[in-house]
């Protein structure tokens, strides 16, 4: 009996201890507990007071990052801007997803930041910005965005180049790397103007090419400005422009050369006056040279000409000619028409016989190092954009889109090809 009583006593003490311990666990587990009557200390109203106090102590500086966090198809020109109000920026860090840092600059008044380099397409960037308010309290903002991908963007490759000096026949020619279905929207994002005040119209040859020119040749000495404001312009469904660029080029002296396949002479004129007459050899009766106004689009001191590349092959499929060092060659068409030096033909043919496969040949020497030859003179006195007018060959007029030869389309037809 006595032993049993003692056991019950110990059991009661154990229960009391367990109850106290359990109660302690409950107290420790109640992180924000308590009754709404405040007996336990505050409840939700207490937490709200804490949050309010924290907010009152935080920075007033407001940071805005553009584009917003998680953006895709972002511009490579106007994205990645950081601005702050009610404060000044103290640090901005921009990196690619692999950690490569992107250089940028904070403005003089320290209220904005932007990258100082061109962003890349299809790249994810991360931005972390810190600013402080008038009391020195720091604010932080982070964002990540991805720029537009090549599949979802288009660019236009243009000629002539920025800063170039070209001949009076040089059009602005833009070739797009994606087919443009929204031609009007794209054309509205492109302006071409001249210091001469000449009206400029643009013409779409197809979904990938648009050329712009005045009614008559550019005025010598004028400056032409091309503005591309295509960033964000939808050129086709889901395909956007990325270019934001201004290009200027200068028009040189007015030089137009006239090739007469009948007299086999070329008259080189400047400002309407003949400055030189050069004997030529144009296309043979079997391979006539195109007629029409042609613009020099490329110049090569020496280049290779292989007949196979333009359809002149023998019975074995080899090129009828393959000359690896054609001197003083200047392109007149995409299809292979050149005006170039010829050292392999007899000197007697120039001015007397048309013997070429369709090009216009001038007397020259091998190596392109003799400045006294007619071909060397013409090469040195020609600019990309100069006009060469070919007549009396008996062939058709060259197509306006075969090279930079839109001058072979009358003004009404040219303007009819505008999308706006």
From TrEMBL:
Domain L,D-TPase catalytic: 255-391
Pathway: Cell wall biogenesis; peptidoglycan biosynthesis; Glycan biosynthesis
Protein's recorded name: Lipoprotein
CDD domains: LDT_IgD_like_2, YkuD_like
Renumbered residue ranges of the record's region Disordered: 37-78
Keyword Amino-acid biosynthesis assigned: no
Protein source organism: Streptomyces fumanus
Composition-biased stretches (Polar residues): 69-78
A Pfam family this chain is assigned to: Big_10
Location of the active site: 340 (proton donor/acceptor), 359 (nucleophile)
Signal peptide: 1-30
Keyword flag Disulfide bond: no
GO BP term, pick one: peptidoglycan-protein cross-linking
Gene Ontology terms for molecular function: acyltransferase activity; peptidoglycan L,D-transpeptidase activity
Any one GO CC term of the record: extracellular region
Keywords linked to the UniProt accession: Acyltransferase, Cell membrane, Cell shape, Cell wall biogenesis/degradation, Lipoprotein, Membrane, Palmitate, Peptidoglycan synthesis, Signal, Transferase
InterPro entries the record matches: Big_10, LD-transpeptidase, LD_TPept_cat_dom, Transpep_catalytic_dom
């Amino acid at each position: 009996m006595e032993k049993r009583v003692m056991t019950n006593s110990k059991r009661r003490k154990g229960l009391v201890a367990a109850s106290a311990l359990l109660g302690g666990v409950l107290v420790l587990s109640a992180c924000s507990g308590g009754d709404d009557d405040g007996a336990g200390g505050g409840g939700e109203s207490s937490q709200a007071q804490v949050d309010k106090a924290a907010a009152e102590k935080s920075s007033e500086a407001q940071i805005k990052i553009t584009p917003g966090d998680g953006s895709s198809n972002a511009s490579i020109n106007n994205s990645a801007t950081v601005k702050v109000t009610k404060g000044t920026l103290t640090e901005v860090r921009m990196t690619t997803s692999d950690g490569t840092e992107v250089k940028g600059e904070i403005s003089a008044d320290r209220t904005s930041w932007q990258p100082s380099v061109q962003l890349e397409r299809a790249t994810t960037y991360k931005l972390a910005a810190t600013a402080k308010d008038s009391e020195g309290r720091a604010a932080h903002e982070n964002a990540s965005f991805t720029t537009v991908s090549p599949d979802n963007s288009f660019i236009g490759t243009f000629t002539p180049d920025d800063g170039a000096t070209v001949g009076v026949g040089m059009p602005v020619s833009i070739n797009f790397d994606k087919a443009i279905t929204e031609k009007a929207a794209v054309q509205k994002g492109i302006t071409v103007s001249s210091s001469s005040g000449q009206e400029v119209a643009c013409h779409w040859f197809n979904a990938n090419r648009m050329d712009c020119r005045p009614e008559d040749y550019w005025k010598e000495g004028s400056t032409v400005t091309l503005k591309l404001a295509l960033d964000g312009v939808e050129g086709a469904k889901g395909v956007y422009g990325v270019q934001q660029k201004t290009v200027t080029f200068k028009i040189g002296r007015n030089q137009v050369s006239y090739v007469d396949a009948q007299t086999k002479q070329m008259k080189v004129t400047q400002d309407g006056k003949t400055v030189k007459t050069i004997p030529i050899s144009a296309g043979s009766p079997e391979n006539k040279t195109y007629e029409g106004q042609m613009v020099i689009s490329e110049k090569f001191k020496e280049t290779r000409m292989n007949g196979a590349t333009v359809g002149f092959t023998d019975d074995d499929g080899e090129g009828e000619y393959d000359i690896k060092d054609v001197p003083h060659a200047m392109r007149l068409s995409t299809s292979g028409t050149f005006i170039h030096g010829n050292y392999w033909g007899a000197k007697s043919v120039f001015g007397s016989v048309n013997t070429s496969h369709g090009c216009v040949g001038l007397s020259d020497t091998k190596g392109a190092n003799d400045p006294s030859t007619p071909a060397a003179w013409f090469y040195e006195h020609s600019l990309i954009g100069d006009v060469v007018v070919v007549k009396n060959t008996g062939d058709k007029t060259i197509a306006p889109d075969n090279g930079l030869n839109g001058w072979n389309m009358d003004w009404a037809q040219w303007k009819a090809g505008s999308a706006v």
